[in-house]
TrEMBL record:
Leader peptide range in chain numbering: none
Alphabetically ordered keywords of this record: Lyase
Keyword NAD (UniProt): no
Protein name per the record: Histidine ammonia-lyase
GO molecular function: ammonia-lyase activity
InterPro entries noted in UniProt: Aromatic_Lyase, Fumarase/histidase_N, L-Aspartase-like
């Protein structure tokens, strides 16, 4: 995997690549910016310039002055008190994505941590060492990043080369010593939007792949159900102004071009059901939502999200207490993208239902070769309905949850990190639903009453499916086939951008 150097800001693709194992390094310019910001913090400390979290408490304790002898203790204690997450730990990819986004934030040169802190984080990434981070308990970002910070100082736990070890043993295995945090470093390690931004980058990577698979599944269902290709005609679709719609229309036309099955069906119906003819409109709207979310995440990665941030020069230091750690844009973007993916998956279930329903499919009931002794995909469609319903519940916006914390100091919350987690859960379900539709389309091809050939585009996807899953004849638990189909959707790139 290609190394990624952080010079200018990372983008979401970079963060997703680091999450999957790419090596992250810092350019000389980025190192210089980090060093300059640290010098400014040291000047602020020496001159006793009031700065939130540097020489004061945090949250509702922001007006309590912390003298120089206590500032190291403040940084350490912030990690200890903020490391209060609960529940199952994050996966390695999620933790790596958060670390990559945090390194990116520090490399802007306005946080004021020492270069040694950033190098320790890079060493964790390079050494296959992932801090163990409980997945629940944060309204924004604090708890997840505190658990990461613990390992930097030799506390907490980590997964190193597959084994669960203490933070101290993890550092020892990497040839590193625990850090002693200086002024501001504890606050910087738990601050900003890197948690939400890192997770959002993974949402984007998986969503992009899923949207490509959704187009392929729709084209295969359309062909199996003998749809009317005029619905995807370029001349018609160009009358609706949507970049995503036009992209999907082009992809669908490429997938079904040359289909003998569809050529034989032309003119046999006036129009098809919405789940077939409105694919460009629904999938296209989802792609437009994806593009907006991608732009938001890239802007967030290009932004400084520390509070406070430092600027100026060592001779004329500046410190700004503001609300840049507020992730409202990420929360709204993830809520919207989650809804879009849920709708794509809901439409997939409707096509699945048409494939298994003999009243509209013209195929054997439930795609079972022996409709008496075999149930085929009957109950699999129930599973898809259940997942669609769960997505509907998950699609309620996290960004409106609200809440009041820290003695009225933090009196508005936008829940950006929960919004990203929620989008990942929706994707889990959507990948399974799409996998089910793809299994059904492959089975349906084999039950067609016609000898007409598939389009080359759909045939290539059919063969890919069959390389992973054999035809189904009620001869094994269907759940195993569903898992293999889900894995294909989650991990296999169809080669489109």
């Amino acid at each position: 995997m290609t190394d990624i150097e952080r010079d200018a800001s990372l983008n979401w693709r970079d963060v997703a690549a680091v999450a999957q194992g790419a090596r992250l390094t810092l350019s000389p310019a980025a190192r210089a910016r980090i060093g300059q910001a640290r010098t400014i913090v040291e000047t602020i400390v020496a001159r006793q310039i009031r700065a939130y979290g540097v020489n004061t408490g945090v949250g509702a304790l922001c007006d309590v002055v912390v003298d120089i002898p206590k500032q190291r203790e403040l940084s350490r204690n912030l990690l200890m008190s903020h490391a209060c997450g609960v529940g199952d730990p994050l996966g390695t990819a999620e933790t790596r994505a958060i670390i990559a986004a945090q390194v990116n934030n520090f490399a802007h040169g306005h946080s004021g941590v020492r270069l040694a802190v950033v190098e320790q984080m890079l060493a964790l990434l390079a050494g296959d060492c992932s801090p163990e981070v409980p997945g629940r308990g944060s309204v924004g970002y604090l708890t997840h990043m505190a658990h990461i910070g613990l390992v930097l100082i030799g506390e907490g736990t980590a997964i190193h080369q597959g084994a669960r070890v203490t933070g101290g043993d993890a550092l020892k295995a990497l040839g590193l010593a625990p850090l002693v945090l200086e002024a501001k470093e504890g606050l910087s390690l738990v601050n900003g939007t890197p948690c939400a931004t890192g997770l959002a980058s993974l949402v984007l990577a998986r969503s992009r792949r899923l949207l490509d698979w959704a187009d392929a599944a729709a084209a295969m269902s359309f062909e199996n159900l003998h749809g009317q290709p005029a619905a995807y005609a370029a001349k018609s679709l160009t009358l609706r102004a949507s970049p995503g719609l036009l992209t999907v229309g082009e992809r669908l036309r490429a997938l079904i071009e040359g289909s003998e099955i569809l050529a034989a069906a032309v003119g046999k119906r006036t129009q098809d059901a919405i789940s077939l003819r409105a694919v460009p409109h629904v999938h296209g709207a989802a792609r437009d939502t994806f593009d907006h979310a991608a732009a938001v995440v890239d802007r967030e990665l290009a932004a400084v999200t520390d509070n406070p941030l430092v600027a100026g020069t060592p001779q004329a230091p500046e410190v700004f207490s503001q609300a840049h750690a507020m992730g409202a844009a990420i929360g709204l973007a993830m809520d919207n993208l989650g809804i879009a993916i849920a709708e794509v998956a809901a439409m997939s279930e409707r096509r699945l239902d048409r494939l298994v329903n003999p009243l509209v499919s013209g195929l054997p009931a439930f795609l079972a070769a022996d409709g008496g002794a075999c149930s085929g995909f009957m109950i699999a469609q129930y599973t898809a309905v259940s997942l669609v319903a769960q997505n509907r519940r998950l699609a309620a916006p996290a960004s409106l949850d609200g809440g009041v914390t820290s003695g009225l100091q933090e009196d508005h919350l936008c829940h950006a990190t929960p919004a990203a987690f929620k989008a990942l859960e929706i994707l889990d379900n959507a990948e399974r639903i799409l996998g089910l539709e793809l299994l059904a389309t492959a089975q349906a091809y084999e039950l067609q009453a016609t000898a007409a050939r598939r389009a080359p585009g759909t045939d290539a996807v059919y063969r890919l499916m069959r390389s992973a899953v054999a035809p189904y004849a009620d001869d094994r638990p269907l759940a195993g086939d569903m898992e293999r189909a889900r894995d294909l959707v989650r991990h296999t790139d169809l080669g489109h951008d």
